[in-house]
Amino acid sequence: MPITRTFPLVILALSSLFWGSLTQAAAEASYPIQSGDTLRIVVWKEADLQMDILVRPDGGISFPLAGDLIVEGLTIPQVQSLLQQRIAKFIPDPEVAVMTLNTNGSAVYVIGKVNRPGAFPLVGKLDVMQAIALGGGANTFAALNDIKVLRRGSKGQLESIDFRYGDVEKGENLEQNILLRSGDTVVVP
């Protein structure tokens, strides 16, 4: 194939890789870290300060020279900044890179009369209808107009949000098909 035909294909492939990594970087910048997530932390030019770390159940991590840090609820840029501040006491102008390797700590739960109840990783945006689909759909005995989304507030209080499957299925009251947050439970009675 002549180079004039392959060059646009190469440019297209490279641009999709570039935009894909920009999209992933934007998602990581706003993702709140959860316990159970795995982070890769790298301090440039410091071979001993490159490691993968599991966020503990208490939301903390331990990193050499930085000590114990609570990172749950923080974003990647916030963790980078915190690590740089702590490490700067020992290494002048440290360059710290932090990335998520997996987001196992971020999940939603679908329970009740669905075909495959369970915990499902929350990767990207997920609404109630999509969560029910992940659970294999409702079974024939489900009370589709009595579905509830259970959500914990910032102070630990439990909130119940009504969801009427039949309305959304007809294209009505679409605002009730909310985006789920980590820890939400969809109950299909």
Question: Could you characterize the architecture of this molecule?
Answer:
There is one protein chain. This protein has 189 residues and is an alpha+beta fold. It folds into two domains: 31-102, 2-Layer Sandwich (wza like fold), CATH 3.30.1950; 107-188, Outer membrane lipoprotein wza domain like (Outer membrane lipoprotein wza fold like, Roll). 28% of the residues lie in helices and 28% in strands. The protein is built from four helices and ten strands. The chain has helices spanning 3-30, 76-87, 128-134, 165-169; strands spanning 38-43, 50-54, 60-63, 67-70, 96-102, 107-112, 118-121, 147-152, 158-163, 185-188. The strands form three sheets. It has a five-stranded mixed beta sheet, covered by helices on one side. The protein has a three-stranded antiparallel beta sheet with strand order 2-1-5, covered by helices on one side. The radius of gyration is 22 Å and the shape is elongated.
Short description:
The protein has helices spanning 3-30, 76-87, 128-134, 165-169; strands at residues 38-43, 50-54, 60-63, 67-70, 96-102, 107-112, 118-121, 147-152, 158-163, 185-188. It has 189 residues and is α+β, with helices and mostly antiparallel strands. A hairpin with a 6-residue loop joins strand 1 and strand 2.
Per DSSP E runs of 2 or more residues, the count of β-strands stands at 10
What low-confidence regions span 5 or more consecutive residues with pLDDT below 50? 9-17, 19-26
Could you give the distance between the termini?
60 Å
From the spread of the alpha carbons, the general shape counts as: elongated
Give the integer mean of the pLDDT values: 86
CATH topology of the largest domain: Outer membrane lipoprotein wza fold like
